[in-house]
Amino acid sequence: MKIFGIGSTVAPSIAPAHPSAPIPVQGPGVGAGIRVDLGETGFRIFPLLLGGAEFGWNVDIDTSREILDTYVDRGGNAVYTADSFTGGRSEHIVGQWLHSRGLRDEIVLAARVGQHPDNPGLGPVNLVRAVEASLTRLRTDHIDVLYLDGTQRPSSLEDTLATAEWLIEAGKARAIGAFGFRAEQLVEARILSSAGFPRLTVLDVPYNVLRRKDFEGDLRLVSGAQGIAVTPSHPLEHGFLAGVHRERQKTVKSVRAAQLADSLTKRGTRVLRALDAVAAEHGVSNAAVAVAWLLAQRVVTAPIVNAYATQHVEEVMQAVGVRLTRAQLAEIARASE
Description:
Blueprint: E1 4-6, E2 36-37, E3 44-45, E4 49-51, H1 61-73, E5 78-82, H2 89-101, E6 108-113, H3 124-138, E7 143-149, H4 157-169, E8 173-179, H5 183-193, E9 200-204, H6 218-226, E10 229-230, H7 255-263, H8 266-282, H9 286-295, E11 304-307, H10 310-317, H11 326-335
Parallel strand pairs: 4-5, 4-11, 5-6, 6-7, 7-8, 8-9, 9-10
Antiparallel strand pairs: 1-11, 2-3
Helix pairs in contact: 1-10, 5-6, 8-9, 8-11
């Protein structure tokens, strides 16, 4: 059974530089020459981040390492995790893998902080403690892209960015991203950056062909105007857009089953049929088409995708070589209305 998971999730205002023709990712290192600028961070990455939300939860440590190895073998170079993923277990697994493989300098490491129960929120003290704890679990002295989780609204964005500035000056973070920020907070952050505070250069927001409303409004306009690189999480809507589950699982009661059930609507069925048709035309999986749809959005640089098995990594990485036509994009968009 094939089940896809989603990162619990990019050139700023232009479409990513896809190859001129579809390039199926089949052999080791095929994607190594495919890189896009991650906004203004200074990093160039494969246009798909491998997320670690399932590591240590639905995926054991050995399978997690196999998934990470497969992603790198196929040319990937950006890994995303968070201190809230399985209480930090995901960070432990990623850190052990980086150390054992000796790949720290080759991988763009992105980590999100702000939701760990020991150091919740983005207040100055908890933010520093959260980063220090993540660094320990990740077995590194710096995080390349530090995502600030604003789900718990910071009491003072100025204090948060001042702390982020200290973290950069101390060499503990290289670039700052945002998660859970509203459009007005991005505007406030840009005003503060003109006074010398660090800029928010990357945005993680749940976004896919089924989940469009939260992003396709002020948030999209502001991120595009500011040149923020968007790295959308949940590109497969908890695995639904992979097209494997099309009926309600009456005998299975779990968080994942409930999430899939929420998408099993008339609209969801229309979207799957549209993905079916386009996938057949390109000879790839529905998951690859769903991610290719995101990559065709001009503000998106690299979706964050989690996987349960190595074959999922190979399938979804094919999205980078899929160029959807205007007619196909229109067909998928109509189905999602």
